[in-house]
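FORM 12-B: Structure-to-Sequence Request
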């Protein structure tokens, strides 16, 4: 049944501040499995982190532009100010995009220069390169001109980039958010200084739910007393319990495959009820 990313009412119930995020999952992800199991008395796990920010996407084309901060770009709001440590040292981009959704108008801009653009085109995988090509972007020869085109506060953006570049030049890292690498703990920071300069206006997307029904080791859905609900199994996005405070990239797919096999094997052992 998947998650509930297309059900705004359920999202608003568990994470009201994320209700206006852009869903990127199939239209069928309406929370039907979750609602059905809750009606049977099912317990839940990690619903407090179920709704987590996912990719930063181009506001017009909905293309994933996470390549920008991964290769050294920065994220700013309408005032030209950075709002989070773009290397996402947690190993997950959700905290960055969650913070982005809290910015005025729920929008923010990914800012980068020609050197970063070249690295993305030459070193990213084909999927991300294609996504970046299809993102709606603007460019300019100066930061002041870029600010004028985007509507971002010119002084704020200029001051932000000057401070960022000066930190890298003088101390070797960003002193505002303690950013020390382009992504995670890989690749040293680079200054944003080579024209043309680029900007992509972004919103935060939702791609999957990180919490859901509580299951046991047999993939049986359990109630609030830890008792298995007869003949009810769950796996994949509708199930919770794997992520706790953060999300390990790629785990959704691995979990769906493993839990699906476990649930299927155990369900097949159920007594024949057809008569």
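FORM 12-B RESPONSE
SEQUENCE OUT:
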């Amino acid at each position: 049944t998947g998650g509930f990313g297309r059900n705004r009412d359920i999202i608003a119930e568990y994470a009201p501040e994320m209700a206006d995020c852009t869903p990127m999952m199939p239209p069928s992800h309406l929370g039907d499995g979750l609602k059905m199991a809750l009606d049977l008395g099912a317990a839940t796990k990690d619903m407090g982190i179920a709704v987590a920010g996912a990719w930063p996407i181009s506001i017009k084309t909905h293309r994933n532009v996470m390549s920008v901060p991964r290769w050294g770009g920065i994220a700013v709001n309408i005032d030209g100010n950075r709002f989070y440590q773009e290397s996402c040292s947690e190993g997950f981009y959700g905290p960055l995009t969650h913070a982005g959704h809290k910015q005025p108008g729920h929008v923010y801009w990914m800012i980068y220069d020609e050197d970063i653009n070249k690295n993305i085109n030459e070193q990213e995988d084909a999927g991300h390169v294609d996504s970046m090509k299809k993102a709606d972007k603007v460019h300019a020869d100066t930061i002041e001109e870029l600010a004028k085109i985007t509507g971002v506060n010119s002084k704020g953006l200029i001051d932000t980039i000057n401070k960022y570049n000066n930190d890298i030049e003088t101390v070797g890292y960003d002193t505002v958010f303690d950013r020390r690498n382009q992504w995670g703990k890989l690749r040293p920071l680079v200054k944003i200084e080579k024209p043309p300069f680029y900007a992509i206006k972004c919103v935060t997307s939702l791609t999957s739910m990180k919490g859901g029904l509580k299951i046991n080791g047999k993939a049986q859905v359990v109630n609030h007393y830890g008792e298995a609900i007869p003949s009810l199994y769950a796996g994949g996005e509708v199930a919770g319990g794997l992520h706790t405070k953060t999300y390990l990239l790629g785990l959704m797919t691995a979990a769906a495959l493993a839990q699906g096999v476990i649930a299927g094997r155990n369900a097949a052992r159920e007594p024949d009820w057809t008569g």
